[in-house]
């Protein structure tokens, strides 16, 4: 009888694990992929929709399109996980597996930033980013604060990209002179492992008059006064607040008792949890790398290859290397590329760009994933 792998969550990690296992076994392994949503949206596509480069329907990749050998997609909310029994309960029924890959990502705690729901806008969820498209289109200029409340948060370059894309948008609309942009981040520099990328971003912030507030975070928003209170005791007035909400694991992971200090502990080289044949990858796991899709997919690839070896009775020699490549928007369609290695001594990052030419590489990154995960072509974000 063929073995069954339950893949929990169909984001970067779940889709990569599913694709690798389906290709490797060509129908001789049962893979049940479970997600509560209709389809996958890249994190960077949220910014593309928010800044009106494309539309919400063009960035949604429907799970109903997945037709891989051995794979069943179940659209359901996972309500309980038993890591010992490798049993999960969902709104679409219960499932038992021989292996679990937990790839449920990170959720947001909006109330973790007092005042955010009343006075600001988060731009990290699909709903939040998509709703901002109209809000930005009707913005008439004023003080904009882009703020983070606490780490870890997904895609550390994304708030810097947001500041630069906003700058470009306000310039295009002729309202940059009547606006200010402030960026508040709990890091000493925008991309800590890459001094070169950070220097390029800081120089661009200076050139474009974006106020950089390092080493502090936004604690709360005062909805009446319309000021953001920062951890260093200062305040920033805002007409428009764009926030990165506090991140946490989805509630089902917490109620399953899988966390230590808020995240699922794993062996960072094998992605194994302390339960046999149960792996955790991506944003929900404490791996020691940033929360980003490029890291989630490589972790998932390692977990999938180790599961494949276990199923075949081979030795499990695949190890995660902590490497990733990030594409950073500098505004005006210019892209910088940061390559980071986390497990070879101190984290190190190299930087290339920014330039218009590198946009083609970012485009190919998205297109290649959709080809691999959904077996179809995709014309990634293009200006409407
Ligand atoms: C604005 C923004 C820009 C970004 N840009 C980039 C970028 O350029 N490059 C990059 O590498 N990363 C980027 N990221 C980060 C990236 O999106 C995430 O780090 C990545 O998606 C994490 O992958 P994952 O598989 O761990 O989780 P996810 O991709 O979040 O997938 C988790 C899945 O689990 C499902 N799920 C959760 N709970 C349940 C449940 N109880 N039942 C059923 N299903 C459930 C969710 O619906 C989701 O589909 C960006 C993020 C943001 C917000």
TrEMBL record:
It comes from the Bacteria. Gene3D superfamilies: FAD/NAD(P)-binding domain. This is FAD/NAD(P)-binding oxidoreductase. SUPFAM superfamilies: FAD/NAD(P)-binding domain (SSF51905). InterPro entries: FAD/NAD-bd_sf, FAD/NAD-binding_dom, SQRD. Pfam families: Pyr_redox_2. Residues 4-297 form the FAD/NAD(P)-binding domain.
